[in-house]
Design brief:
It is a single chain. With 375 residues, the chain is of the alpha/beta class. Helix 2 (23-35) packs across helix 4, helix 7 (202-213) packs across helix 12 (355-365) and helix 9 packs across helix 11 (320-338). The two termini are 36 Å apart. Strand 8 (164-165) and strand 9 (170-171) form a beta hairpin. The strands form 4 sheets. It has a 5-stranded mixed beta sheet. Strands 13-12-11-14-15 form a 5-stranded mixed beta sheet, with helices on both faces. The protein has helices at residues 3-18, 23-35, 42-49, 53-65, 130-147, 185-193, 202-213, 270-279, 283-304, 314-318, 320-338, 355-365, and strands at 40-41, 69-75, 83-88, 94-100, 104-111, 116-123, 153-160, 164-165, 170-171, 197-201, 220-225, 229-235, 238-240, 308-312, 346-348.
């Protein structure tokens, strides 16, 4: 699929979908999404949204006309004729997720339900310069779409290490890669790919994906340990970015004043301590990394009164049980000392080391379902 055709398709689909992004239509679409293959009846949609049956009928008729919903059979009723159930036509459109990590690049293609239908992985040197990185990203996205040709693509969600300006899609001083400071990544990739692009921190992308997948808790912290360390925060059901997209710079809180120098310029950052412990390559080093991560997690729990801590990223995925156990022990010990009741749960995030790239695709899908973060 050439880029001119892709740009035209994206514009056409985007124009069609923009009319559906009103609050009521988004409520209906989200319920169709969460109902899955089993579907949901118009009566249930009316009951759960608070809309009138007539309003639901109009919305679902538009969704069916646009190829986003189909009938999924009939369900026995407690009275009267059987109810027709509807389901989301997940393959009607797709989103691309792109994760630019410090040393690798991942891409996924998802359907409207967020299910991955194609994926790629390639090495990357984030320090090689913008031209090389953009060329590699464009090549991977093109290859992904050509291999799964004919898909209607809504856009590309890009997850990158922070800090950055989410609103303008401009990178700030990415830790260890100051040359990216001020680079307009969204604008550059939009031009390269010929598709709408959204940019956010990889931790925010992962947290948004977890919130959409319904992890159960309304407020949680997602801690991502890979080539760096950061956090994504979901508070009262919504992703919290902060006024300047600065929330979640978890790795650079100082917990050892005379500790080792961090690449950010400070001493004793959690990120520096964790990465140094992991780099030792020993079981003891991994246990120390988990303990340090647990101290940071316990700080977040005390500060924000969140309901859960979810762990993810490449390093956690490789040693999942060790990190979950180590962080859980520290969080529980802090809860006992502070006397605030039972410790909150600590668990591995589903998706392991793919949570960020899948969450990046969700950044494109979320507005369609009325689930985009407002802060």
């Amino acid at each position: 699929m050439n880029r001119h055709v892709r740009r035209t398709m994206a514009a056409t689909v985007g124009a069609n979908l923009s009319a559906l992004r009103g609050h009521n239509a988004a409520l209906v679409l989200d319920l169709l999404r969460t109902a899955g293959e089993a579907g949901i009846s118009r009566l249930e949609l009316a009951e759960r949204t608070g809309l009138t049956p007539q309003a639901v009928s109009k919305i679902t008729a538009r969704l069916r006309g646009d190829g986003l919903a189909v009938e999924a059979g009939r369900r026995a009723s407690t009275g009267g004729k059987p109810r027709t159930v509807l389901r989301l036509l997940a393959g009607a459109a797709h989103a691309v997720g792109l994760h630019l990590d410090r040393d690798e690049l991942r891409t996924v293609l998802t359907d409207l339900s967020g299910a991955v239908v194609a994926a790629r992985r390639a090495p990357l040197d984030l320090g090689a310069g913008s031209d090389a990185v953009l060329a590699a990203a464009a090549c991977e996205v093109d290859t992904l779409l050509e291999a799964d040709g004919g898909q209607t693509v809504l856009g590309v969600g890009v997850a990158v290490p922070g800090p950055l300006d989410h609103t303008d899609g401009v990178l700030h001083r990415v830790t260890g890669f100051p040359q990216w400071d001020g680079f307009p990544l969204r604008e550059a990739l939009t031009e390269r790919l010929g598709l709408p692009v959204v940019v956010d921190k990889d931790t925010n992308a992962a947290a948004l994906g977890l919130a959409l997948e319904g992890e159960g808790e309304r407020s949680f912290a997602y801690l991502h340990l890979g080539t760096g360390l950061g956090a994504g925060l979901v508070l009262d059901g919504s992703l919290y970015r902060g006024a300047r997209t600065g929330a979640g710079e978890f790795g650079h809180q100082v917990i050892q004043l005379d500790g080792p120098r961090c690449s950010c310029g400070n001493r004793g950052c959690i990120e520096a301590l964790c990465l140094a412990a992991v780099a030792s390559g020993t079981d003891g080093g991994l246990d120390e990394a988990a303990r340090v991560l647990g101290e940071g997690a316990a700080n977040l729990v005390s500060l924000l009164d969140i309901d859960a801590v979810l762990l993810g990223g490449r390093t956690v995925a490789a040693h999942e049980k060790r990190f979950v156990r180590g962080v859980e022990q520290v969080v529980a010990a802090r809860a006992r000392r502070e006397g605030g009741g039972p410790a909150i749960p600590v668990r591995a995030a589903p998706g392991g080391d793919t949570q960020a790239v899948e969450g990046a695709a969700h950044m494109i899908l979320a507005p369609l379902f009325g689930r985009a973060a407002s802060s």
